[in-house]
Amino acid sequence: MTATEDHIDRLPAPALARPTSQAERVADLLRTFVIDGALAPGVRLSEEKLSRKYQVSRNTLREAFRLLSRERLLVHHMHRGVFVNRPTSEDVRDLFNARRSLELPAVRGAGNAPAELVRAVGAAVDEGERARAEEDWWRMGSANMHFHEALAALARSERINEFMRQVLAETRLVFHVMAAPREFHDPYLKWNRRIHLALVEGNAETAAAELTEYLDTSEDQLVTAFVELERTSRT
């Protein structure tokens, strides 16, 4: 069995639901696998195996691949196939710019957010704390993605939710490249809790200030690591 076959065999089989077309549903499913860490950079996506596993046509898969290629999650290499993309340090910088544009206004405007949206932020922190207690660092990474998704959801916009899922899928690929989930997630869990508590107390500006420092610190850490990785790969 090849590495590609092994990755695809281990993918879960949730119901294809939500978006309108079959290709969009498949794209959403694959995007979720990237966000949750089930698909890593460099993995080749076999049309044959995915078509058989999810009972969709190859034409549907190809359209889903095109959608995700436009989101920079997949890349097509001539005569080799479709692969999960591998981000660069410049991608990291651009992703954090996008995240600031999506997350910070949502948090600043969260003073009147429905209680269930604030609870969703707390539930993601709870998920991360459970993962840390079990030393499940990859699940902690998934919980962190859910935390930031919940922050963007405070904007109460389906379009922002959609954009955020795309950005977080790319962000998860960044953490996959680093392959050190504890180092890049554990230090931020207490920060997540502080942001949640500020939201619970109605201190949206405090939460936004915490998030601003959080994103700056995380970007610096990741860009530094990526630049060093790229420098080493060139020598």
How far from one another are the termini? 33 Å
- Give the tally of structural domains: 2
> Numbering strands along the chain, what is their spatial order in the largest sheet?
1-3-2
So, the CATH homologous superfamily of the largest domain?
Answer: GntR ligand-binding domain-like
Strand content: under 5%
Summarize the helix and strand pattern as letters. HHEHHEEHHHHHHH
Q: Helix/strand/pairing class, anyone?
A: mainly alpha
CATH topology of the largest domain: Four Helix Bundle (Hemerythrin (Met), subunit A)
User: Any idea of the CATH class of the largest domain?
Assistant: Mainly Alpha
How many distinct beta strands? 3
Helix content: over 70%
Largest sheet report: 3 strands, antiparallel
Helix tally equals: 11
Specify Rg, calculated over alpha carbons.
18 Å
Poorly predicted runs? none
Question: In the CATH hierarchy, what is the architecture of the largest domain at level 2?
Answer: Up-down Bundle
* Structural shape: globular
Outline the structure in words.
- Helices cover 71% and strands 4% of the residues.
- By secondary structure, it is mainly α.
- It folds into 2 domains: 3-84, Orthogonal Bundle (Arc Repressor Mutant, subunit A); 89-234, GntR ligand-binding domain-like (Four Helix Bundle (Hemerythrin (Met), subunit A)), CATH 1.20.120.
- Strands 1-3-2 form a 3-stranded antiparallel β-sheet.
- Strand 2 (74-77) and strand 3 (81-84) form a beta hairpin.
- The radius of gyration is 18 Å and the shape is globular.
